[in-house]
Amino acid sequence: MCATCLEEGRVSRATIPWAERHDLGLFTAAWRTVLQVSGEPTSFFDRVRSGRGRLSDAALFAFLVAIPGGIVGGLYNAALFGFFFAQGGVLEQALGGAGPEFREAMMDASAGWVMQTVVSVIIAPFLTVAGQLAISLLHHLVLKLLGAATRELEATLEASMYACGVNLWGVVPILGLFVGFWVMVAQAIGYSRVHEVEVGRPVAAVISPICVCVCFVGVAWGVIMAAVLAGTA
Amino acid sequence: MRLRADRSIPLPEPFLRLVLLGGGVLVLLAARFFPFSALPPLCAFKYLTGLPCLTCGMTRSWVHLVHGRVADAWAMSPLGLGLCLATVVALIYGAARMAGLPALRLDLSPAATWALRAFGILLVLLNWGWVVAAGRA
Q1: Is the pTM of this model over 0.80?
Q2: Closest chain A residue to B120 measured between Cα atoms?
Q3: Which of A8, A21, A217, B73 has the most CB atoms around it within 10 Å of its CB?
């Protein structure tokens, strides 16, 4: 597809499902976008690059995809509360009836827990988007330092927001354990495609913020192990 | 190296303006009003090694600065003080851009670009040395 063909209308500009949400419907568009980000990220981010998307659209997508995760997290929280509440009854019996103070404390705790669950469900999507935007700013900084940011900041943030589509799989038990890593892979591919650079530098940009921490902990671990080995020798 | 005003550079889209300006204001407000001093030390590196990490002291440096304690902010982390001031300057620049002022662009030769990057890394390492010498946690 060349620019002239696009200008003359001989071919249509390939778009992502989320850009066609007014025709497809919000949920169908979001679902298809999640599937494409997860299953065929290279061609998906090629279309993000060639499209005329706005960052706010991408952020809205990331926000909507984060909602199921927040709800499932809230349900887990509620289940955990139920478990502890049940254990509270057992504990009271074991104590031979701890009295009204104990029951009052349990009721206070339950009210606090319900409130915490509701708040976490409501604010989780906001925190997800805000956190990803913040980390993407760091990614763009590293891309700049490595000379791999061939386009403006919006391109990096847009790719990162769409990569968050992978977060939806976090609601699946077990699969949720790998979602963080999967998002990073999608982000690296996304940065590589939207900035049209090889994948090495985007990978470095994605892992560098956590690499600093891991290296620190690695050094610390080495120091401790050396001390332990020296002590046992 | 040349600093120039460029009116041809468009403003970022409104959402990104909101993210950058809102985020900048939010972190400054957090530094001013959030009770960071009530939190326990959170650095795993310090916990494991006894040494402060690369960014230890930055949050408290911001907190000191937004409370007007410049000397304390410098003592806690010179780089944190610099970043906080840079954030304030960036917010003023962003507001000025929205008010219609032209964008500022720094034209650098490739050699100057690399020199600037090396200088940035050197500053971070010097700051770490400062923080280690001061025994921050």
Answers
A1: no
A2: A145
A3: B73
